[in-house]
Design goal:
Structural class: alpha/beta
CATH class of the domain at 216-372: Alpha Beta
Number of strands: 12
Length: 457
């Protein structure tokens, strides 16, 4: 590692001592950039690293709203506008109690490189609030009502709208922000700005959304895995797969894996994990998706209704199955640790494709890289979601709508391009097959070159 990287990392840690997730994300990227910095001294001369680790803008605001009992509630919200060198800020909004400045800065930093890898003209940003739509503020054991979620979203957008726009910052959904929340926020933006623009992605099909967008992150993760396997002359046919999570990313990754002949054995949520030794069926997956997306229930409820699965309360997906070919972490950051990695490797896992953002701890990543298995970091393999958001932006700008087949074909091609760019960058800089290094370098160089060209700004 170069003295330049050491210096910048030390500065990041000194300036952000209470932001462990952000420091972890910066460390993971910068420690792989030594070869490209050595080959391109203009990056240090132009202080590219120092500028990349500082957001261009951090917006923090309160969100006051009224619950169904008439009580005023107040939440804290943020929008991190990280880097706009190659396009308007682009990145999701997350509603969850874990949301804080560190988490959102890490997500925004990752988003810069992820968006760069898509080959589309999008900068990086992220936002969210510590609001939890899954927990009613006045009735224990209940969720917020639709009316409460609407009032919250309207209040949230009343402040956010002045900081975003189709050519400035285009948010999307993320954890706990789905079609319902996007719809409420889009309606409020339109009302306040007095214009219809593609300012949010993940919209409903009736008002400018794109086909394949809900499926895109999960599908893209599997398409990336297909490309990794192809480099070794393999396919997903017959592979035994474990997946964490049960939201959109996990569910659609499971769907695509099944379509390609793989066996999906696990899913998980906050209640625990289900294990199907013979693999989940399409009918079982459809029932799970209805339970999660319509009834907003938990996997524990599903497990009570079928003998085909075993339920492990408060467990994750990693240490359940006896034989594992591939693992797809699709839940949240740092969900897969060193012990989980050791279990996966011991039980035959040769591929890990990240569907979530930074779901593997540094120790787990080191274990996968040292074992030389096929391991793709989230910034590469889960970029299908934001890539399809970019395609939605294009459709909105042109007032057109592509077919499902057209969008899926574009998504497949984008994921292949991301894979090939990461593979080629790793090979060029001396570590063939290391997708962590390759994705970081490929994403970094495009943004760095744009920053150099635009001067000190």
């Amino acid at each position: 590692m170069s003295k330049y990287i050491d210096k910048v990392l030390a500065e990041v840690k000194a300036k952000n001592p209470n932001e462990p997730e952000f420091i972890q994300a910066v460390d993971e990227v910068l420690t792989t950039l030594g070869p490209v910095l050595k080959a391109n001294p203009q990056y240090e001369k132009n202080a590219i690293l120092e500028r990349m680790v500082e957001p261009e803008r951090v917006i923090m605001f309160r969100v006051p709203w009224v619950d169904d009992k008439g009580f005023v509630r107040v939440n804290r919200a943020y929008r991190i506008q990280m880097n706009s060198a190659i396009g308007p800020y682009k990145g999701g909004l997350r509603f969850d109690p874990t949301v804080n400045l560190s988490v959102l800065k890490f997500l925004a930093f990752e988003q810069v490189f992820k968006n760069s890898l898509t080959t589309l003209p999008m900068g990086g940003g992220k936002g969210g609030c510590d609001f939890n739509p899954k927990v009613s503020p006045h009735t224990p054991g209940k969720r917020c009502s639709d009316a409460e979620v609407m009032r919250f979203c309207q209040s949230f957008m009343t402040e956010l709208y002045r900081h975003i726009g189709p050519d400035t910052d285009v948010p999307a959904g993320d954890m706990n922000v789905g079609a319902r929340e996007i719809g409420y926020m889009f309606g409020q933006y339109k009302r306040l700005a007095n214009e219809w623009t593609g300012v949010l992605t993940g919209k409903g099909l009736s008002y400018g959304g794109s086909l394949i967008r809900p499926e895109a992150t999960g599908y893209g993760t599997v398409y990336f895995a297909e490309n990794m396997l192809a480099m070794r002359g393999e396919t997903l046919e017959g592979k035994k797969c474990v997946i964490s999570g049960s939201g959109n990313v996990a569910s659609f990754a499971a769907e695509k894996l099944m379509q390609l002949g793989a066996k999906v054995m696990t899913l998980s949520d906050r209640s625990g994990a289900i294990y199907a030794p013979d693999g989940l069926t399409p009918k079982m997956l459809k029932d799970i998706m209805t339970l999660k997306n319509v009834k907003r229930g938990e996997l524990a409820e599903f497990a009570k209704k079928t003998k085909a699965v075993k339920f492990f309360a408060k467990a994750n997906s990693w240490q359940i199955a006896d034989k594992i070919d591939a693992a797809f972490p699709c839940a949240r950051q740092n969900e897969l640790d060193a012990k989980d990695a050791a279990y996966l490797l011991k039980h035959g896992c040769t591929l890990v494709g990240e569907g979530a953002n930074m779901p593997s701890t540094p120790e787990a990543i080191a274990a996968f890289v040292n074992a030389k298995i096929m391991y793709s970091p989230g910034k590469a393999s889960n970029a299908g979601g934001v890539a399809t958001s970019g395609l939605e932006m294009s459709q909105n700008s042109g007032r057109i709508s592509w077919t499902r087949e057209e969008v899926d074909a574009k998504l497949k091609q984008i994921m292949k391009s991301i894979h090939d760019n990461a593979w080629n960058a790793a090979e060029k800089y001396g570590d063939k097959g290391n997708y962590v290094m390759g994705a970081n370098i490929a994403g970094f160089t495009k943004v760095a070159d744009a920053m150099v060209a635009q001067g000190v700004c």
